[in-house]
Specification:
By secondary structure, this protein is mainly α. The chain has one domain. The chain is built from six helices and no strands. The longest helix is centred in the middle third of the chain and has 18 residues. It starts with a helix and ends with a helix.
Length: 113
């Protein structure tokens, strides 16, 4: 929906793809934790499990996936500089929008909480 709003066009790849801001995975687990908190209260074990799950997903988005995204960007730059006759130069580029910075994760947590 944010792509539709910002770019005035519908991109179905963004609906099914990973990464971007906000990430669908992080947004889903934070929304789950908030829904459980509202429905059952914040003192129950279900809420604690949802918060732990949300923390793991957001840690993954800001750590491992962010570094994989930066590596994909660098590899795409290297492949673009290869001569056209090189066998690797014909491959399609790696997906670069995989992770988030810690600031983006904090913003997402505040916005959905």
């Amino acid at each position: 929906m944010t792509c539709r709003y910002k770019e005035k066009r519908w991109d179905s790849k963004r609906l099914l793809g990973s990464g971007g801001m906000p990430s669908s995975h992080s947004a889903t687990v934070v929304a789950l934790a908030v829904a459980i908190g509202f429905e059952e209260g914040t003192g129950g074990s279900s809420f604690a499990l949802a918060v732990i799950l949300a923390s793991i997903v957001m840690y993954d988005a800001s750590g491992i996936r962010l570094h994989a995204s930066r590596q994909a960007e660098l590899l795409n730059q290297i492949v673009c500089e290869l001569p056209p006759e090189h066998p690797v130069s014909n491959h399609r580029p790696l997906h670069e929008l995989l992770g988030h910075t810690p600031l983006q994760v904090c913003y997402k947590l505040i916005m959905y909480w």
